[in-house]
Amino acid sequence: MKTFILCCLLLAAACAPAQTESKTLSAMPAVIPTFDVNAIDKTADPCVNFFQYACGTWNKNNPLPGDHSRWGRFDELQEHNQIVLRSILERVASGDAKRSPIEQKVGEYYSACMDEKAAETRGASAVEPLLKRVNGVKDRKALIAEISSLQRQGIGALFVFSAIQDFHDSNMVIANVDQGGLSMPDRDYYVKDDPKSVEIRNQYVAHVQKMLELAGEKPAEATEDARAVMKIETDLAKASMDRTVRRDPHARDHSMSPAALAALAPGFDFPSYLSSTHAEIRGSLNVGNPDFFKQVDRQLSDIPLSQWKPYLRWRVLHATAPMLSKAFVDEDYHFNEQILRGQKEPRPRWKRCVTFTDEGLGEALGELYVERTFGTEGKQRTLAMVEALEKALKRDIQTLPWMTEATRQQALIKLAAIRNKIGYPDKWRDYSKLTITPNDALTNFLHANEFEVNRQIARIGKPVDRLEWIMTPPTVNAYYHPPRNEIVFPAGILQPPFYANSADDAVNFGGIGGVIGHELTHGFDDQGRKYDAQGELRDWWTAEDAKGFEERAGCIADEYSGFTAIDSVKVNGRLTLGENTADNGGVRVAYMALMERIAGKDMPLIDGYTPAQRFFLSFAQLWCQNVSDEEARRRAIVDPHSPGRWRVNGVVQNNSDFAKAFSCKAGQAMVSEKACRVW
Hints:
Elements: H1 18-21, H2 50-61, E1 70-72, H3 73-92, H4 101-114, H5 116-122, H6 128-135, H7 140-152, E2 159-165, E3 173-179, H8 188-191, H9 195-214, H10 219-239, H11 243-246, E4 255-256, H12 258-264, H13 270-277, E5 285-287, H14 290-302, H15 305-320, H16 326-341, H17 349-360, H18 362-373, H19 376-399, H20 405-417, E6 419-423, H21 441-459, E7 479-481, E8 486-490, H22 505-522, H23 543-561, E9 564-566, E10 569-570, H24 577-598, H25 611-621, E11 625-627, H26 629-638, H27 644-652, H28 656-661
Parallel strand pairs: 3-5, 6-8
Antiparallel strand pairs: 1-11, 2-3, 4-5, 7-8, 9-10
């Protein structure tokens, strides 16, 4: 989430103190429809282009808002949630003496972020202490110490140090070092030689130069330093693993002793670095990309200190720009949103501050959000749907013709062991040690970063906390986590268009049911299948079944690789394979569960559609979206999900139940001649 240019006329209301706007936000925003018959383009043939049929009118009536590079049903719900969060934050930012400690902390964080006047008054001076610290680096030992200090404040520099679940002992958390240090979205931005990539690199260097000038460097100095930054990051990118390769957990699984890590990069002095983290490293840690650290060692040897300091200054500015004055915010928006994503105008300040508060104090804000929005009925009905889909997936596994009994039994054991987390955590995170300073957004941002870094480091060497959540409760998303073998559905997504208590089963099973099925089948996609029921990286497949799986997954990868993302850019079928497999399997499993739910019942037409048709329309309408060309191109490089059009059409053309529901015939576009199926 990056920041934006502020237009004084348009933002006169948005930039006012929170309490002056709360009167207009006391009511909840309008409810979003689930199944929307008005979204359908009835001039289209569902058997030729189902995405156009299900979403054509919605897409026509919902052009890209100026402050978005993509606008779809996910974004529609996210916008709804932001309005809810804004009303909560403006209430608790009011300074009421009766606020709880959580309300005070969250309110002051948001209020400081909204204080544009304070940011303008401080200008570049707000970040000067960090830059001064970097400029004071005198030798390599001090350079390593500064990299560690910046990382502890959430400012990524050179590589990543984190806590992860042990690949081979799912009960323990270990330290992890991995590739990092880049400022553009992916290594491909640095290494691809097509004209668009070259153009973006030139624009990036100009962006770095401009930011350094804003921080006080003279133009000639900033020009030279920007080139040095680009050289360092390009070398790091060349040593970084490709995003598609990194999907394989085996590619990131390298257990080493601290001494072995030190031997990879003897010039870095990892013993001192690891000591500075205060992490409890017991025997070994994981090194995500050993070759990357060999490159780090070469760079430390070849690149003079005079070039490392501009790199660190840039990393400071890149990380903190959203909390600085308008000049920094404008330039940050210009490159990261306008150039990279095609966004036409900045998001209002309140949206940015809602996002940052959610990122900085997610479970504190989430607790207030849940109190206001999430009822017990929704949780219980969602749990019942999860149970129904698990039963359907169980039946699917039991009847798969290509799976042998030995693997089938292991798959059923894994399915039975999946943990379900719905709505919000059973135990809320304790933020009592996080200090929030009124009217100082940057300090609060750094304190929140440091709080989270320290929390993560404290996990190292200790048992896994099975109650922990990775997403915050207001998040419009869901996930399956292979090392914990769990599915998680935040309260933020358990509402229209995904789910509604008032909706019929066909709509709910096509909406949130398809998402539940998607997450369940992630446990058995091309990478999830490599983890066992306990979440450990272990091969539990027979050689015969593994070969059968790879053949079926290869069908999906090849199929989606033929789809166009934008212009001449194709979908990366290997990068998106896990999500495409889950999309296809999730819809199939959700449909099975629906058919069992309504079996034997007299089901009348609703809005002129059968339950089967409403199921597929509800599924498809989740992916109605418009997207800028720039964002489509960016997502083709970095996003493991296919574009919305292909998340719909790619699934239904492989699904015989869809063909029956809409009476599609062989030879029509939505009936694949060689349909792909894994689950």
